[in-house]
């Protein structure tokens, strides 16, 4: 009996010590959470999380770095690219992030960055918010755990883009980090409708190429203007083994694409450098094609056509002063006593490319849209079936007929 | 890219005319009628050719579809629940057909049991907007997928025949 009591007392003491140890560890951990910072300081001290970012101002790269706090970015898809994108923007001190994703963290995601094994089973948006808030409590977060392509979620999604920004303003930029065509088309449709600039990003299913594409409705090609662009990866389709797999992924390619995406986001928001409409990445050859993309005047998206018209009208009313986008100042010669003029010696064949830009080297469309005749060969127009649809049958009757088969 | 038999099957499925998605209120009702006519015809064709392989029905709005599909391998019938939503971008993008009970059992699937389609499916769909509908997605997407994946999954012992599902 006495023995038993002694061992219980001993166990009690051990447990108490363990509790104290854990409490100390916890206290130390929560002490590491930094408090919110009201204004970004450029003071170079170890304790200032923004000193190296504000140094961009001192170096003359960015004029107004602290303005980043006024901006809201929506990230659709918080996977291999989206989560890293969110982390970069969080560390940069963005004002607000709105995250959309309907997926859960899985161990199969661990070949990519950001998520940790202990987050398995959590929703990606919930896990992201927890980590990001810890990294930078100054950022405001809003998360939505749903599929934006669903009829009952889409309107809410559009609503948050329109008024989810700081002080109820529209978001400043939408970043597409999704992994499927349907979601890209849904973002495209929404952004054309509400005239919202967005940047598309993607990594190929074989993980060795990627791209970003800036979409300014009416000004640049929208995602429905033409079949998606693909970076030619110099891999013969026939030698690419697809047996037993849907998609491969690498943390490297995804990290690079996220880097491109955030770099251009920062350049756009803080107005430094220039933003390319399209930037590709071919990992096999370390090749980075870039090009400008004009909208298709016959685009299937009716709102794209409206935005194009608006932009043309804007251009007519505000003719661009100088063609050159390069901010380097032109040398002005006040007098020209010899009457020297520059003669454009570009051959006609090359000039054409500017009006109707051919794809940059190393880029191709995912597929061609064939002529109407080719479609007819594939699927014969059956006239009898078209007559059937003319029958005045009610929807309910058809639904019950299908059910009754 | 598409074999002769599939081409013949496709040619017999009525084409659709209305380019309207679930957000286009009145026009969507018209599109939905075309979908139903096309699906009814396709199922009837399948029955006639002794190749009946799925049943579908939808909610009242026609935005959510569900039913059964089956595949006969070595004289045994394997049946699965099939479901999909009509995305807001429909018919610009095809529905993403899912077989939830096979989720995690094959690599040829995306999360939630959405089937992994061939490289040919999306271009083919894109070229035939708005003429292709749900029936075409079944014929070009799910049909060929089952034909490749089910025998493989059975051989590997990942799916086993359930006695109860063999009676029709």
TrEMBL record, chain A:
GO cellular component terms attached to this protein's record: cytoplasm; cytosol
Origin superkingdom: Eukaryota
Coiled coil ranges: 5-32
Keyword match Secreted: no
Domain THIF-type NAD/FAD binding fold: 50-299
Keyword Cell membrane set for record: no
A GO MF label: ATP binding
Keywords: ATP-binding, Coiled coil, Metal-binding, Nucleotide-binding, Ubl conjugation pathway, Zinc
Region ranges (Disordered): 379-405
PANTHER family: UBIQUITIN-ACTIVATING ENZYME E1, UBIQUITIN-LIKE MODIFIER-ACTIVATING ENZYME 5
Similarity comment: Belongs to the ubiquitin-activating E1 family. UBA5 subfamily.
Protein name: Ubiquitin-like modifier-activating enzyme 5
